[in-house]
């Protein structure tokens, strides 16, 4: 659906050239939810805004549904953009217009008739759960409701793609969940391809099919969300995942551990998460194990288990135990106190 080929975006400033996006190649499939993750300044917004040419790439190709947007004339680009909706962190609603008129604005821009607008706006407001708010003004709405209006407006012209620029960063956790659920519904019921940028891996875990991690304008790692969580390669990716899975041992627990023991983080991928592998390990080796932390996450309905264990025994037996886990395809990492 979306192909980015050797995409570069440079900003010329008084202080020199700033590289927003550097040689990015991405392929986003029709109907998927694709996440782009990175810290502030990583180039996420620059990349997203290149997809609808809000930012003109310095070089490279942006192909949406088979059309290379970088080659289009202005009127052609205007037409192509109607098939790409966009929502933002701070909603970008027009404060002097009612909810109805904010949504109608997108239809007017696409030169829809008054009759069509009268029919379409209530349908859109129904879709986002705001059928009773048509006559209210943005100031009378909560953050979540404002984002719903923005989503209705973005969907007005039946886009094939919805670009989401940190859509939940200004919202509380409960509202975040409801907006993510709405985006998932829209993706499933309307088949719209969603590209979403965020700095929270939690959002990616709950919503996305595939993800790209950005640093310094470069995509440093990409893949299916489950694979990225189960086998992160880059240190930055590991850092993001650590935040999302939250498995840092608290200090009082470290204080209680035997000085001769090892603390091991074990990752169970796929069906291994549902089997009694730790039990088997304790049976076939002469070590004692004490589980300090454990949880099983379901990502895209596939289990991913993370356990932190204190392992005690002769070094040779500990080595044997860890090798047993590796042989069962578990990820094994000795954890040291920070
Ligand atoms: N219009 C601009 N002029 C000059 N530099 C820019 C411009 N827009 C972005 N940049 C620079 O490009 C780099 C990438 O910025 P970008 O906003 O794309 O990152 P980001 O990952 O979206 O960050 P954030 O999460 O803070 O929005 C940064 O160094 C930023 O300062």
TrEMBL record:
It comes from the Bacteria. One of its GO terms (molecular function) is ATP binding. The keyword Kinase does not apply. It comes from Paenibacillus sediminis. This is D-methionine transport system ATP-binding protein. The lineage of its organism: Bacteria, Bacillati, Bacillota, Bacilli, Bacillales. InterPro entries: AAA+_ATPase (IPR003593), ABC_transporter-like_ATP-bd (IPR003439), ABC_transporter-like_CS (IPR017871), ACT-like_dom_sf (IPR045865), MetN_ABC (IPR041701), MetN_ABC_transporter-like (IPR050086), NIL_domain (IPR018449), P-loop_NTPase (IPR027417). PANTHER family: AMINO ACID IMPORT ATP-BINDING PROTEIN, METHIONINE IMPORT ATP-BINDING PROTEIN METN. Residues 2-241 form the ABC transporter domain. Signal peptide: none annotated. Transmembrane segments: none annotated. Keywords: Amino-acid transport, ATP-binding, Cell membrane, Membrane, Nucleotide-binding, Translocase, Transport. Pfam families: ABC_tran (PF00005), NIL (PF09383).
């Amino acid at each position: 659906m979306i192909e980015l080929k050797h995409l570069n975006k440079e900003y010329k400033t008084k202080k020199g050239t700033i590289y927003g996006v550097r040689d990015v190649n991405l392929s986003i499939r029709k109907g998927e939810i694709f996440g782009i993750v990175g810290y502030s300044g990583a180039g996420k917004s620059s990349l997203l805004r290149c997809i609808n040419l809000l930012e003109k790439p310095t070089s490279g190709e942006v192909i949406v549904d088979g059309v290379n947007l970088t080659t289009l004339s202005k009127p052609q680009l205007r037409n192509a953009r109607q098939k790409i909706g966009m929502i933002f962190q701070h909603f970008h609603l027009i404060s002097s217009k009612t909810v109805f008129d904010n949504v109608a604005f997108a239809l007017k821009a696409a030169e829809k008739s008054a009759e069509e607008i009268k029919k379409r706006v209530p349908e859109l407001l129904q879709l986002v759960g705001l059928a009773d708010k048509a006559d209210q003004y943005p100031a009378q709405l909560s953050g979540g409701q404002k984002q719903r209006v923005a989503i209705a407006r973005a969907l007005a012209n039946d886009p094939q793609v919805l670009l989401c620029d940190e859509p939940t960063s200004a919202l509380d956790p409960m509202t975040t969940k409801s907006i993510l659920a709405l985006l998932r519904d829209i993706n499933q019921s309307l088949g719209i391809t969603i590209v979403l940028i965020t700095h929270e891996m939690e959002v990616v875990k709950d919503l996305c099919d595939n993800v790209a991690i950005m640093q310094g304008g470069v995509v440093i790692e990409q893949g299916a969300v489950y694979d990225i969580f189960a086998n992160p390669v880059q240190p930055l990716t590991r850092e993001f995942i650590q935040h999302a899975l939250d498995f840092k041992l608290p200090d009082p627990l470290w204080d209680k551990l035997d000085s001769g023991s090892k603390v091991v983080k074990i990752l169970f991928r796929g069906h291994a998460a549902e089997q009694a592998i730790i039990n088997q390990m304790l049976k076939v080796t002469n070590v004692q194990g004490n589980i300090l932390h454990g949880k099983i996450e379901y990502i895209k309905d596939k289990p991913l288990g993370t356990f932190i264990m204190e392992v005690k025994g002769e070094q040779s037996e500990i080595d044997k135990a860890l090798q047993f886990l590796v042989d069962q395809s578990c990820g094994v990492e000795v954890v040291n106190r920070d």
